[in-house]
Every structure is written in structure tokens, then in C-alpha cells.
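Regression test case RT-17, inverse folding.

Input:
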């Protein structure tokens, strides 16, 4: 089932009629947003309840050396009050969060806005009693349980800055993040059930905290009731404290530009960076994009399958939907447990209207056959979304035909941790879709295609280059935590005057956008972003490894797999055991998501005479594309390439 690139799927009359935004409205709003961004965003920010209204909309400079991004800067608001309190009068009894547990035999929970208020206030009071105040950092290392949302909102309520660490990260990765933002408290749970197995989160946290300041406290949520070690004075029992905690906590008055959260993400060099998002602009953007992209209507049941450990979970499970008074579904499990029909079972059970997932999940389920989908009644579905990586036309078609029965527009949302919300996506009632295309810029977004060498804007259609964005939007990241210089260097130095996305893109003959993948040393494994440099530094930290080079290669399910070239110390011999050990080593250093797919022993790496590893060549070898290695004459020792080709590892 392949689609010609020209395949175009216009929205049906029915969808257009019921949508918030049709084609004419999009054109009108888009034009306004570009011609007069101040007016446009001032109006959009009215969807937020401000404690003190802003008078200044935008203060932005993209000048390298002086990058400054501020939105609504003299306004004051509280994010938790926007996501909860202001809905209480009209929808106190409406379900805010549907929680679906890992085990389908365990009961789902329906948490009303009233209950969300109560639980968030209690959590906020617990944090305050542990000494957390405005501006303090709190690391959240939790499974996908309602307490994760309470914890985020509790931080927002008291003005603390949360930094969520995905529960799949290792103790070392957790420690690095706790130390990186100098957190006062880590919130974790005893164990995280996932796919029928349990991850010992508390014992991971124990191991991490050995490498952190002694003053860091640990708040422990009981999820499974599993045994944990306990350090009196350091560890706090959430479930017990919640029984005593006060039911009300006053929302703090926050400035629009106060940080709301830090989220660590991988870059092409060095250690992960702490992406900082602030308050007023972020919430405005998350809420608007949630409503418009998914065409969310009051009363709809909306489900994003991401984990709150990623930005998708921040903007599109918690902040965007709750700011809109939506019912948002939170799923603890995995798509294939107890079988490959789980997503569709949950859609049927909770009558899901908008469903948002990642291409890697679609590809994995597609391989299991259509019978897992056809068993279930999916007639409530209206809009399908994808995010995280380019979606191949086969997966797009399967999603469209088998899941959506050809009736549900697919919104292929392109964005990044840095952007806070969607930057490009078709809108359900306004745009035709094309399998694999992100199609159209969101309001206020001016994409430009640049020549990678000259940095000049490439005008017209049918062109390809690097993707940059002109000017700012309210959801944009403001800085790298503790390192504004790195922020400027990463995003504003290569192409002066633009925000550089790190992605390549094509604007087709019809003027629609296609993301072609990263142009830097970031790889995308199952929608998880990974710096090849991180995996390399994990590998060389092993005593047997002299040198390592890591590249991505096409992987049928994961999108990209992790391919490692490893040069051993002189006194070490390659062996299957050592290969296993290195794989385990990387899992321990970073987490299972960084587990190498392929390790190839490399007696030497292709380097220029100045010692720079030529990754282009390594990528080609990993891709099995030996015909186009390009010029190898500048290599210090061209013969290493022949050796790498001859011994190219067979992919598992
Ligand atoms: C990178 C950002 C945005 C939340 C999840 C990932 C790739 C993301 C798409 C898409 C093609 C996509 C880009 C981007 N990406 N969405 N719809 N089509 N590529 O966030 O971890 O910050 O990764 O993911 O390469 O730069 P992230």
C-alpha cells in the first residue's frame, strides 16, 4: 500500500461544517497573526484568566548575543487557577481526567474538576510543608498516574518550577537532572506498572539521590504498595500526608515570564539541556493549539497517549486540555498490553473523540494486523493526530483507513520541546491532508526554508532546505536553564535573525510543508529524541572502550535505530559478552530508550587529518548505502572505511 506523493485528502463537508476553523477563517486569522501579531496575540490571550492584565504584548529580539523573548510580560496569572479553579463554577462535576490503568482489570478513575482542585491543593500544601516555595525546583519522576498531574499543577499553584524526568530514565540520568536544576524535592512512586511489568522507581530514586545534595527530599506516592527502603527525615509519604493536608491552597500570583517548567532534552552536543518554558505565553499557546488543532469541542473526550515525561504530555495531556476545561485521558500502560488492541479497547471504553499518538506506535500496531482494531467500536473518533517524527505514507494510510475508516482528518503535528506547542499542522476543518506532510503553519508562525550553506531564504515552491522560523510565538522556550549562552548558540547563531529548528524541510509545489528530519546529530528513536553525543559519552565511560561514534539508521518500527561504532582499548578483545555488557551499560547510564540496536566493532574510525570523525560516512555504512560514500580522500586513513564496510554488522 503506497501512496503517490500527490495523494490529497480534503476534509468532508460534514467536518468543515462543524469545525471551529474552516479554510476561509484560517486564511483570515493567519493573515492577521502575521500582519499584526501584537493585536492577534493580545486577543488570543483573553482565553486566559489574568490576575493582573498585561499592557505589553511582545518584547522580542533574535539578535545573536542579545536574544530576549518576552510575552505579556507585565501580566500576572496562575496556571493552576486557569486549569482548575476557573472551571469550578461551571464544570466542577465534569470529568477533568480519565485515568486508565496499565492493567485493564483494574478500575479506571474519573477525576472531576472539583476533585482535581482538592488533590492539587493538598499536594501543593504538602510541598509547601516540605519547604518548597516560589521559584524552587521540583523534579517529578512518576508513572502515568493522576498524581503526576496533581504534582505539576501543585507546583504551578505555588510557583515552584517542575522538571519532569521520564520514568524510563536511569538513576544516573535522574541524578544529572536533579543536580542540573538544583531541585529541592524529588516526587516519585514506589513502582511504575507498565505492560504488566514494574519499574522500581523509588529504588531508582534512592540510587540517584546518592549523587545529589543531602538536603534533597523525596516525596513518595504509593502506586503498587511494593516494598521500598525508607530514610527517615529524607523520605515523605504522600498518601499519609494527603490525609492531613489542608484542602485549600491559595494560587500564587505569578508574572507572565516566571518559569513554569524545565524539561531536559537532547541536543547535538554535550549533555541534555534544560528547556525553560514560562507562564503566560506558554499557557496561551498550549490552550489555543489544543483547541484548534484537534478541533476540540466542549464535551469531547480527548486522549493523547504520550507520557508526561515529554513535552507532548505537558502541553497536550495536562496544560492545554485543562486550560480549555476539557476531559483528558491519561493512560498508564503501553499499546501492546495485554495485546495489540489496547489503544482501541480504551477508545471504545471511554468513547474517545480525539486520539493523538506517535508514528512508532502506529507502525508497531500495523504489523499486528487489522483484527485488533476491527474488534472495537471506534465510531466516536473524529480527529486523529500524530507527533514526534515523520510518518511514512504506509503508516499514515493504515491510520487513516483502518483506524479512522477514512472519516477522521489526520493532524500531523510538527513541533519540538523548544516550541511549547504545534508550529505546523493541518487543521481538521480547514486543510486537506497529504500522507506524511505537516502541511501548514499555525497562527503566528512564519516558516522559512534556508539554503544550508549561504543561509539565504529560498523563495517559491518546490524547494528544500533547513527550516527556520521568523519571529517569535508565545509558546517559545525562553532560555536554557542556567546557560543563556548555550540557548543563543544553539538556536540563533547559525542563521542570524531566525530561530533554527534543527530540521530540514521541503515546501512542495502546492506550498505545503514536509519535515525531512534532523540536519544535526540528533536522532529520533521511537519519537524519543537522543543526542548521538550522549550515547557516545556513555560508551566511552566504559573501561573497555577507547572511542565510539554513534549514528542513526532507518528502523522499521522505531523510525531510527541507534548504530554504534566502537573501538576497544588495545588490551580488549571483541566478544558477544562484551557487546551485551556495553548494551546494558548504556541502558544503565541513560535508560532503556537509549539501548543500542547495533554495535559494530571498529578497529578505526574514519577521521579527517585534523581528527574530526566523518559521520556522513558512518551514516552511509549504517544505512547500507555504500555506493554514495562521497569523497573519502581527505581521510587520514581511507582504509578504515573498507574495513567498516567488510565487517558491517548485520542488523538485529
Ligand atoms: C523533533 C522534536 C514535539 C513533541 C515530540 C517530539 C521531530 C516532531 C514531527 C512531525 C516530523 C517531527 C522533529 C523535531 N518531529 N514532530 N510531525 N513530523 N518530524 O519533541 O523530542 O523535542 O523532538 O521531533 O525532528 O525537531 P522533541
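Golden output:
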Amino acid at each position: 500500500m503506497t501512496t503517490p506523493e500527490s495523494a490529497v485528502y480534503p476534509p468532508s463537508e460534514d467536518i468543515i461544517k462543524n469545525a471551529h476553523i474552516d479554510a476561509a477563517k484560517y486564511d483570515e486569522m493567519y493573515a492577521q497573526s502575521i500582519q499584526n501579531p501584537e493585536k492577534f496575540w493580545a486577543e488570543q490571550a483573553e482565553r486566559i484568566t489574568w490576575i493582573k492584565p498585561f499592557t505589553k504584548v511582545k518584547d522580542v529580539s533574535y539578535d545573536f548575543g542579545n536574544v530576549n523573548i518576552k510575552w505579556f510580560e507585565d501580566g500576572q496569572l496562575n496556571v493552576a487557577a486557569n486549569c482548575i479553579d476557573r472551571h469550578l463554577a461551571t464544570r466542577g462535576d465534569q470529568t477533568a481526567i480519565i485515568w486508565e490503568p496499565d492493567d485493564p482489570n483494574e478500575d479506571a478513575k474519573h477525576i472531576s474538576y472539583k476533585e482535581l482542585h482538592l488533590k492539587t491543593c493538598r499536594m501543593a500544601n504538602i510541598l509547601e510543608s516540605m519547604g518548597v516555595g516560589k521559584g524552587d525546583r521540583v523534579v517529578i519522576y512518576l508513572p502515568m498516574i493522576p498524581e503526576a498531574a496533581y504534582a505539576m499543577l501543585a507546583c504551578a499553584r505555588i510557583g515552584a518550577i517542575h522538571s519532569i524526568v521520564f520514568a524510563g530514565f536511569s538513576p544516573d540520568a535522574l541524578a544529572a537532572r536533579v543536580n542540573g536544576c538544583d531541585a529541592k524535592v524529588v516526587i516519585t512512586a514506589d513502582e511504575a506498572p507498565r505492560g504488566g511489568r514494574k519499574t522500581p522507581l523509588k529504588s531508582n530514586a534512592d540510587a540517584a539521590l546518592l549523587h545529589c545534595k543531602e538536603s534533597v527530599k523525596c516525596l513518595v506516592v504509593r502506586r503498587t504498595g511494593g516494598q521500598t527502603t525508607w530514610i527517615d527525615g529524607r523520605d515523605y509519604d504522600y498518601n499519609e500526608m494527603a490525609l492531613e493536608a489542608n484542602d485549600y491552597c491559595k494560587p500564587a500570583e505569578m508574572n507572565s515570564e516566571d518559569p513554569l517548567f524545565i524539561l531536559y532534552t537532547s541536543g547535538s552536543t554535550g549533555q541534555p539541556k534544560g528547556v525553560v518554558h514560562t507562564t503566560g505565553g506558554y499557557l496561551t499557546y498550549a490552550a489555543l493549539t489544543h483547541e484548534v488543532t484537534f478541533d476540540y469541542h466542549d464535551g469531547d473526550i480527548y486522549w493523547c497517549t504520550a507520557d508526561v515525561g515529554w513535552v507532548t504530555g505537558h502541553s497536550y495531556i495536562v496544560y492545554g486540555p485543562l486550560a480549555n476545561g476539557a476531559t483528558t485521558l491519561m493512560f498508564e500502560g503501553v499499546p501492546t498490553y495485554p495485546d495489540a488492541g489496547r489503544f482501541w479497547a480504551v477508545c471504545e471504553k471511554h468513547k474517545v473523540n480525539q486520539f493523538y499518538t506517535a508514528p512508532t506506535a502506529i507502525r508497531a500496531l500495523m504489523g499486528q494486523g487489522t483484527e485488533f482494531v476491527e474488534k472495537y467500536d471506534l465510531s466516536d473518533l473524529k480527529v486523529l493526530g500524530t507527533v514526534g517524527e515523520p510518518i511514512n505514507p504506509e503508516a499514515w494510510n493504515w491510520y487513516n483507513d483502518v483506524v479512522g475508516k477514512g472519516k477522521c482528518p489526520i493532524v500531523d503535528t510538527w513541533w519540538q520541546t523548544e516550541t511549547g506547542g504545534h508550529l505546523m499542522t493541518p487543521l481538521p476543518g480547514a486543510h486537506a491532508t497529504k500522507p506524511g506532510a505537516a502541511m501548514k503553519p499555525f497562527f503566528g508562525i512564519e516558516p522559512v526554508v534556508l539554503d544550508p550553506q549561504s543561509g539565504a531564504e529560498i523563495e517559491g515552491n518546490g524547494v528544500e532546505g533547513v527550516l527556520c522560523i521568523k519571529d517569535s510565538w508565545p509558546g517559545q522556550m525562553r532560555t536554557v536553564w542556567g546557560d543563556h549562552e548555550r540557548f543563543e548558540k544553539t538556536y540563533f547563531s547559525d542563521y542570524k535573525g531566525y530561530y533554527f529548528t534543527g530540521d530540514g524541510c521541503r515546501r512542495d509545489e502546492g506550498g505545503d510543508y514536509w519535515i525531512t528530519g534532523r540536519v544535526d546529530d540528533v536522532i529520533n528513536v521511537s519519537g524519543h529524541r537522543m543526542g548521538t553525543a550522549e550515547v557516545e559519552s556513555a560508551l566511552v565511560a566504559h573501561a573497555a572502550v577507547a572511542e565510539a561514534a554513534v549514528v542513526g539508521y532507518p528502523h522499521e518500527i522505531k523510525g531510527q535505530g541507534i548504530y554504534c561504532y566502537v573501538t576497544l582499548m588495545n588490551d580488549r578483545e571483541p566478544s558477544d559478552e562484551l557487546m551485551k555488557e556495553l548494551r546494558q551499560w548504556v541502558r544503565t547510564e541513560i535508560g532503556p530508550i537509549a539501548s543500542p540496536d547495533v554495535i559494530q566493532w571498529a578497529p578505526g574510525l574514519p577521521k579527517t587529518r585534523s581528527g574530526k570523525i566523518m559521520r556522513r560516512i558512518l551514516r552511509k555504512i549504517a544505512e547500507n548505502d555504500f555506493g554514495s560514500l562521497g569523497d573519502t580522500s581527505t581521510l587520514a586513513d581511507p582504509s578504515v572505511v573498507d574495513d567498516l564496510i567488510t565487517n558491517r554488522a548485520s542488523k538485529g
